[in-house]
């Protein structure tokens, strides 16, 4: 989680700031004890305790944007260390990052150090940006899984070819990322079996 923000996610957060005209935007991931700031535009920290996180309150209603107009007047937040101390957060709006199976990982959120409100169109825009962030994270996860499969297949292929006395084969990858190859000529056996890794 300590890696630099990915450009695509960073841009989505910056768009959220521009749309809502606020100085701070984040993309957060929340685990059991901590909130990780995957993208942090305008706030100089990389993680917080979950109990101090505004975003944890947005996880309970995945289809809604949580809006806190003035944190000093909200019982949930008025004693929060980020409200009574720097950066003195007053306004928060967070759209949950919901996975396809309904789990909520965190939020795309915007913050300000002065009270404010946002329109229903701003809320819709935050939800769209949160969905785009989640789409990106899902695609990245699938890509990592496919790359892992390919590396495993290549490793298995190397083991096989290192032990084959000699032969000519064609290698193909099916749509699921599986490597298939067919021996055109197997010098020792004279047969041409099909193999799949």
TrEMBL record:
<dbReference type="InterPro" id="IPR003018">
    <property type="entry name" value="GAF"/>
</dbReference>
<dbReference type="InterPro" id="IPR029016">
    <property type="entry name" value="GAF-like_dom_sf"/>
</dbReference>
<feature type="domain" description="GAF">
    <location>
        <begin position="5"/>
        <end position="131"/>
    </location>
</feature>
<protein>
    <submittedName>
        <fullName>GAF domain protein</fullName>
    </submittedName>
</protein>
<dbReference type="Pfam" id="PF01590">
    <property type="entry name" value="GAF"/>
</dbReference>
